Prior knowledge:
This protein is mainly alpha-helical. It is built from 46 helices and no strands. Helix 13 (226-240) runs antiparallel to helix 14 (244-255), helix 20 (341-363) runs antiparallel to helix 21 (371-387) and helix 28 (487-499) runs antiparallel to helix 29 (503-523). It is globular. It starts with 11 loop residues before the first helix and ends in a 15-residue tail after the last helix. 37% of the residues are buried.
Amino acid sequence: MSKLPNKRALPSREAGQFKELLNLYESRQLKKGLKTADLILKKFPEHGETLCMKGLVLVHMGRREEGIDLVKKGVRLDLTSHIVWHVFGLIQKGEKNYEEALKSYTQALRFEKENINILRDAASLQTQLRLYDALVETRHTLLRLRPNLRQHWVALSIAHYLNGNTKDAKAVLESYLSTLKNVPPHDVEQSETLLFYITLLEELGEHSEALSVLDSNSRSRAIVDRTAVSETRARLLTKLGTPEAEEAWHTLLERNSDCYDYYAGYLSNKGHTLTEPSPAALQIVSDLAAEFPRAKAPKRLSLNLSTGDEFKSRAEAYIVTALVKGIPSLFSDLKSLYADPAKKDAIEEIVERLREHYKKETAIPSGSEEPTTYLWTLYLLAQHYSSLGQHKKALELLEEALEHTPTLPELHTFKGRVLKRAGDYLGAARCVNDARVLDGQDRFLNTKTGKYLLRAGMVKEASNVLGLFTKKDASSPGADLEDMQSMLYLLEEARAHEKNGHPNLALKKYMAVKKIYDEIEDDQYDFHGYCLRKFTLNAYVRMLKWEDNIRGQASYVTAALAASKIFVAAHDNPNLVKSLSSTSELTDAAKKAKKKAKKAAVKAVEEKKNAPTTATHDDKGIEPQSNKDDDPDGLKLLGAPDVLEQAAKLLAPLTAVAEGKGSVGVWCAVYDVAVRRGKVLQALSALGKAKGLDAESPEVHVRVVDLKLREAKLAEAVKEGVKKLYPGDVGVETFNSQYLQRQEGRAESVLACARVLGLLGAPLEEVDNAVFELLAGERAVGVKDAVKALEFLRSIKSGREEEFRAACDARFELSTAFKSKEEQAVIREQVMTRGPNGGKDEAVTP
């Protein structure tokens, strides 16, 4: 045994005290541990391991800065001790600094290669960082040290699987399973291990072997999940092409006759799909509908598989049943059929005919139909016409339905949706609020109202409405919703702040969304050990795959793109923060609210200080406490010197999941940030990918021209890359006009060409004329396109902004987006004061 260094060696008494210190820390007797550490340090003030342990105890007691300083000092005093590096790694892990924590654990393993605790923590960190090669080595070491623990066998198999070595994962499990003896019946851990083994066999294409293992272990009840057995067996039999597959899928349908996955498996076994119309597939589904008369799924699937008159007869029967039952979600159920124009027209014809029939039947006292059937028919027709863009017709039908039954919340909420689609966000908010007033206890209607108020830019009113269902002791409804990780609220409020001209507040909300995703990624750390202990192997692997693509979710993509756009605007306009600071004077009401919140926060701190503490509450945890927000307005965030670096960090995860035409915006945002950071090759690559996805995209066109204008300052090697994106023998003006000719009917392209003229420094009159081309002729222009054009005219300080607003106001009759500020102020006042019966709604206070 090697001799301990002089600084680390302790006399027997102090060595015993150090062991006691370790035990006291493990049992979280922190005060006793601190006293014990002080006793050792009194005689040996430079004992690095004790200093580190004292620092760790202080961190747990809430004295974080003091504790970390002691840990660092202890590391410097004893660089060859595995304990000091282990403690340092624990501190870094608590700070979510996983890369540095792993480095510390690696250092600890240099001096204590077979420490089980350090190896186990290192394996979790390697999984968190997706360092699967190193993970395999660590898991192999753990298995070698403790081969009697089956958790280590399974963990090594999982490591091989995550590293892409499915054959090695299978071999490890086979070795493990061959050593088992006297396994108790109905052992859940053994069941999960066998299911994972069967999954490995299936992925390797060894279907016969997988089926054999499945059957033998299901008969012996070694696999306790009967549903998983049935589903896996049906899937394997289908891949083997055996006649027993049909019976296996049929057994699953008998168990759950409304599961679409089972119907997909049943039909695929016979060579059919759920979406492609086929007489043979239709006959199969019809037989299943007859066999399971109470199941809805086969009846709905028959609409996918039928065409022509057969579709009409089946669709009418399906629609009539739903209307008689009064199913509000009927349109959502039928909406996917609208991809086929013939089916869309057939549904319109059927529902219009039913409308006439029910109108006649309900008009006479002796009619055979219920009045509610006619009501739901009107509701369905309104949804149909609104989806086709015929908003006036939809509103007429809704008005008729409201005259029939003015107390149905669904009518008011959908009227709000129609108005929203037509560009009347204020009217939409008023209608949804009318629905909320009908049932003040309905949380869904409350949330819907808050959402629509935010879309109308009414942030304060939305906060009051949402506050009716949030915690009363929270500092604000928004703070509670942020703690609850409500993405809907954060994104909608961010858009509202942008709409109201407060990009700093919008940026705070977008970054809150980013923080939530950081927390979701951090939360998976605890499962690396938990899932292996509980042997939930298949669920664990699915979770890791899901976490790998989590940044591709729509809410993160939306927040990242919008935040990066604000960061770029702050970089392009250094005076932005100053201008926002000068216009951010608080109103008297806002000042009172801020003062009240400050008093409440001070009171909460005093109560916390005066509250009696017990031993059970001494441990503050190793993670840093959330600090008070010293930038509530987001001005410091917006004015930070590294805005482009922050934008790049936001966009970096998106580049790994950006696929298809929908990701053009991602690559354009990457270009915007990279070109301003001087990362020309990255910008060139991003723009190339964007153009490869959609060469005619208006956003791509603007950036290609932007890159061409920067060409003179680029290196010769980079200019070769520019030539691949831009035709070298065409002038920029000609290139712009040629693009407009190709995309003449596309409103976004017209605006893109106007933006290019602005980049070229064209006269303001010429840019104005290009924007006004949007309203010329029969070009299909939506409200959102017109709003973007109006914002563009405002950004270039056009003298024709008011003229364009008035023209859009006349063109979009239902929209309030183009009303004057005075008209909008009047309409805004009516949003929260009109009930469904035209009366005043009671004041809404949280």
